């Protein structure tokens, strides 16, 4: 049995629940992953330009931002996105905010770095449907890209340079301070009574912090919460390992609002529906679910949602990337 399938039962013991309360309800970040190396502003600016560029798709009609739209919390508000040929994709588009410390990417964790992740949609036949040499050729043929890359020392633009720029841009996207952050910093009235009740519930009886832990409210691991299906058994499609049936990556809860619908298949239109599901989870279709029935009361649900609202903060200011891009062209 792989380690990620035993995390939830471990934290179900009373002692470990107390540890969770002490570590997280009081604000420590001891279990936070080590931050990734900071992105260079110049390369991130090139990544920003590439991210919004439809040249990177077969029919010049889809960019990374088509599905990861800043106006929709870096998702697109749809249950399933549409690719360059008009086909619906098979999984919901996850947000790309706050990925700087992530160690697994895509819902099934098939990529281990942002650079590797950046390459996936480019070559997927239903997404952007490009060959890697075609991507490089299109970027190399653009005089602005040649000038910008040359400014950071790249004369012949290769796919590694493109993936690196896209990764640096995504790595730099971080949400701003929220009410819970202010509470952690000592602003005792940053959370109202309902949010405070929800905070206690989140870190104790609600078991939310079993997976949604640390500063980014995710353990960066894969879990079975009973949403896998015979058609999409999650991580199992990558590994073929029986213990991986039904495993999907834990998303961050920071700045979740606006990224609806939720889960890998977009089955829940609202966070209220997600909370209802966790309160009384149905039997899993594949694998063994890690969830316990939580039997939340109506007040519990209201308080939990109120606390989760406190995890929403400001969004990145994209103006700095445009400014840095223009500076590259003026060198």
Model description:
With 331 residues, the protein is mostly helical. The chain folds into two domains: 3-31 and 177-309, Cytochrome Bc1 Complex, Chain D, domain 2 (Orthogonal Bundle), CATH 1.10.760.10; 41-174 and 316-329, Cytochrome Bc1 Complex, Chain D, domain 2, CATH 1.10.760.10. 38% of the residues lie in helices and 1% in strands. It contains 14 helices and two strands, in the order ααααααααααβαβααα. Helix 10 packs across helix 13 (298-309). It is globular. The N and C termini lie far apart (55 Å). The model is unreliable at 1-12 and 17-39 (pLDDT under 50).
- Mean residue pLDDT: 90
Give the class from helix and strand content and strand pairing.
mainly alpha
Give the overall silhouette: globular
Helix count, DSSP H or I runs of 4 or more residues: 14
Please describe the structure with a list of short key phrases separated by commas or semicolons:
331 residues; Cytochrome Bc1 Complex, Chain D, domain 2; mainly alpha; two-stranded antiparallel sheet
Entry summary:
The chain is mainly alpha-helical and 331 residues long. Helix content is 38%, strand content 1%. It is built from 14 helices and two strands; from the N terminus they run H-H-H-H-H-H-H-H-H-H-E-H-E-H-H-H.
